[in-house]
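Subject: Endoglucanase

B.,
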Amino acid sequence: MKVVSEACVAFSLAYVYVLLLIGTATVEATPFHRIIPPLQSLYGRRGPSLSHDYRDALTKSILFYEGQRSGKLPLNQRMRWRGDSALSDGAAGHVDLTGGYYDAGDNVKFGFPMAFTTTMLSWSVLEFGGRMGDNLDHAKAAIRWATDYLLKATARPGVIYVQVGDPNLDHKCWERPEDMDTSRNVYKIDADHPGSDVAAETAAALAAASMVFRTTDPIYSRHLLQTAMQVFDFADKHRGAYSDSLQSEVCPFYCSYSGYNDELLWGAAWLQRASRNVSYISYIQSHGQNLGGEDNVNIFSWDDKHAGARVLLAKEVLLRNSKSLEEYRGHADNFVCSLLPGTPNSQAQYTPGGLLYKMSDCNLQYVTSTTFLLFTYPKYLRVSKQVVRCGNMVVTPTRIRTLAKRQVDYILGDNPLRMSYMVGYGAKFPERIHHRGSSLPSIYQHPQIIPCNDGFQSLYSNAPNPNRLVGAVVGGPDNNDHFSDERNDYAHSEPTTYINAPLVGSLAYLAHSFA
Ligand SMILES: *[C@@H]1O[C@H](CO)[C@@H](O)[C@H](O)[C@H]1NC(C)=O
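Prediction pasted inline below.
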């Protein structure tokens, strides 16, 4: 039996643009200070929500990471149905690569999305950690679970281990991580097999995390930052896409479709923020244009980081008055304008129910990553008392946040199906997620091994998953707000670590502001 279960990858064969542009009908010549479109047009067919328990959702969104843990679980593990797994990872390359995260519903440790997840969890804490309350320590533990692994993967100078597990073999089995007996090959990049994409993203992750631990663990923080600088240097000096030398191992799963320029810009942006070493500003000034700093993009994902880099660099302009990065303020504004329904440059599609719609597969990853930027950029605007101008429209920070909040509310249940897309949150949520460990009985209920092929009964069964992967957000509904909750429909039913990571920050903002 063969099952191809690609994780929520970015390539989409079917962009189905049969969507209604929300709000287009309501746009008219606008007085300078009027904020359009009317808010209710963003709510689609349903009215606004009564209220959400954002704090509960925040707690769960972080708890999810415990379900994705690989390696030896600690005594304070709260996701109790999981056990130790992959305790010899790295042995195939005579290195210790235990730990880290399974990226989604399979048992592969993909370094590229793991690094992006780490960067976004760290950014969530850097912007909104002060609003997390008791959740802050759990969020930091979730980051550290990844950075401990990334430090192992980058411990040898000139080499980065970028993946453990053969995805083609892994996907031919439906096994619990605790039973896993497929090949745990290790894959690496080096000067002769470069991977500027995965290396620069790893540098970004380590740099962002170094700021998270700066006051609570300065020694660890310094180690993260020094490693980040070395890894970025390696990424820049030995340029290439990791998918060129690791084609059959990383494609079509986490192929670097957008190339590596975006990661070099993003990595430099994080390093300048973390190190305050002016060499990174000079680097961005000299290379930004070649690295696509001005390209017209309106997507933000594990593959394409240009939009994130813009918002990050715009902060330097707004809060630190960095003249040399001035253009990024305009690029960040353009990104926001492209998303707002009814603005002259609006390019975004929304479902009839009001959800930002980018791609048919795993759409919620784009919603959560974009939403994070739409909460973060207004923070910088607010502090610097600025607004965004889209053509002759003035867009206030509040207006931007309203759109972002609408997206989170949709995920939590304000949608035509009245269901939450976060497992364990609300009254109705996905019960048959595409996730091996969650869909098979726990090793504590069923200690005998469930071999490779036997697990497929569970994949095709209609029964709800026996173990709840609390906090997991799945790929989500289609372009018509439909969701079938079928385990085999990985494009819509699979959770991933990078769907949740930016949502953690958004939920922290909302939990604090709408408590
Ligand atoms: C700044 O970064 C450059 C390039 O990585 C490095 O050569 C230099 O030593 C750094 N300066 C400081 C003060 O850390």
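The longest strand covers residues 159-164.

T.
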